[in-house]
Amino acid sequence: LDQLGMEAFGPGGQSAFGFVVPGRVPVYSEQFTQIEALKWSCDVENSQQIRDVVVFLTQPLAAPGCGVGCFITGPPFDKWHFVGTLSNESPSGVFRVRWPPDEGAPTACRIGVSIMSIAELQALEATLPGTELVDFGRKVANDLWNYLGSFEIMLTHGAMLLPLFNRWMARFEDRCKHDPFWWLKNSE
């Protein structure tokens, strides 16, 4: 895989990938710097207002069993944060940029792409903060449970309601896993 480099993107490798920050001009692979055999990065100025980034492939990956990991970092550009995955089955994605609270939003950042095995990408996907919504839901549900616990009905029927509560929480987690934005859709 390391020997492939840009050839992993197919013949020629020209304009193999790119990104768009909403409201800005697209940036294509020719404007990236190759930093390792299978890794490229591109600087982005005035990044403190970036909330989302769209990363895309312009041609299929020629390397079987591989995908593209998308990353972002701020100064001093040594701690890369995984934001999402691209593959032949999903050649573009809109990724939320979440800076760790201890770092804040930098004034400049770097977008990075890396050709990786699907197994590596799946492991990284599991670390994404899509769980933020699940954590929020869990806290709201626990707060509601504690509030309801202050009423007499919970003293007499709490044991019967706990399995329903746990099933609801499992359903909520499953919905968030499959579609993190389900709650934004009008389902009335």
Automatic annotation (TrEMBL):
Q: What is this protein called?
A: Hikeshi-like N-terminal domain-containing protein
Molecular function terms from GO: nuclear import signal receptor activity
Q: What is the native source organism of this protein?
A: Hemiselmis andersenii
Q: PANTHER family attached here?
A: HIKESHI FAMILY MEMBER, PROTEIN HIKESHI
What highest taxon heads this organism's lineage?
Eukaryota
Q: What are its GO cellular component terms? A: cytosol; nucleus
Record lineage = Eukaryota, Cryptophyceae, Cryptomonadales, Hemiselmidaceae, Hemiselmis
What range(s) does the Hikeshi-like N-terminal domain occupy? 29-98
Q: Which GO terms describe its biological process?
A: protein import into nucleus
